[in-house]
């Protein structure tokens, strides 16, 4: 389960993405979220205000398959668009806060498949690979 | 099937969102897309380069339920974040180009449920409603 260097560099340059989960009814839901790449575990860690009471946090216990997309534009037009979609399985996790005084509830994604557009010098345009 | 005025104003102020569909395998996929609000039909119309050969365009014929999210930040922090999630059913559609010389393939979403954050003067914070 290894992400390529260019994927990691892009993830480390960004802080926001959109997380698609499946609701209890099996239909998709989609929310903007903050994230960080967890280099130690090779996962995407998503935190947020009141995470532990959010619907998305409950959704993943029923349907763990998720899709997380990060994108930005470095200029006008499709040739200056960058995109990374991470499909994988999500789980509830807990992280110690930086002060150590409290815990933070996370959605942690273990990447399964990566689909990218214009990420990494060697791969202009569409580039996909499996992480596991 | 009517969207509220504040919802429409927000949609008309934005041009990009992220579309969650279900793949053939029933797992979520998520992509950045351009869109416009179709005032005549009350729908979200999503176009794009090579739309008719894209996976998302095929996905909706098998699983028509989608979630489309539009968000932006008008300052720092959660209180300056705005978000509109549109859940609904998607269908393939065709639009004449502005020149009339060709057609453009679209994903057209008929809104079912709206979930918003900080959209509209009368509704700071979380506000949801059904469109149908």
Topology summary:
2 copies of one chain form a homodimer.
Chain A lengths: L4 H8 L3 E7 L5 E11 L4 E5 L7 H8 L2 E9 L7 E16 L6 E15 L8 E5 L2
Antiparallel strand pairs in A: 1-2, 1-4, 2-3, 3-6, 4-5, 5-6, 6-7
On the 0-100 scale, what is the average pLDDT of chain A? 92
Question: What is the helical fraction of chain A, as a range of percent?
Answer: 10-25%
Number of helices of chain A: 2
Structural class of chain A: mainly beta
One letter per element, helices H and strands E, the order of chain A comes to: HEEEHEEEE
Count of individual beta strands of chain A: 7
Tell me the strand percentage band of chain A. over 45%
Shape of chain A: globular
The pair of chains with the biggest contact is:
A-B, 24 and 24 residues
State the distance separating the first and last CA atoms of chain A. Answer: 4 Å
* Quaternary: homodimer
**Could you give the order of strands across the largest sheet of chain A?**
1-2-3-6-5-4
Uncertain stretches of chain A:
none
How big is the Rg of chain A? 15 Å
State the major sheet of chain A: 6 strands, antiparallel, barrel
């Amino acid at each position: 389960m290894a992400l390529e260097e260019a994927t990691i560099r892009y993830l480390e340059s960004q802080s926001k993405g959109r997380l698609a989960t499946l609701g209890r009814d099996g239909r998709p839901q989609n929310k903007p979220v903050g994230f960080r790449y967890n280099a130690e575990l090779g996962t995407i860690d998503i935190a947020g205000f009141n995470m532990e009471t959010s619907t998305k946090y409950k959704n993943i216990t029923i349907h763990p398959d998720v899709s997380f997309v990060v994108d930005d534009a470095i200029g006008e037009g499709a040739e200056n668009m960058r995109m990374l979609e991470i499909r994988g399985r999500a789980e509830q996790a807990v992280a110690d806060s930086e002060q150590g005084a409290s815990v933070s509830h996370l959605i942690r994604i273990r990447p399964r498949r990566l689909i990218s557009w214009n990420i990494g010098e060697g791969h202009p345009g569409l580039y996909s690979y499996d992480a596991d």
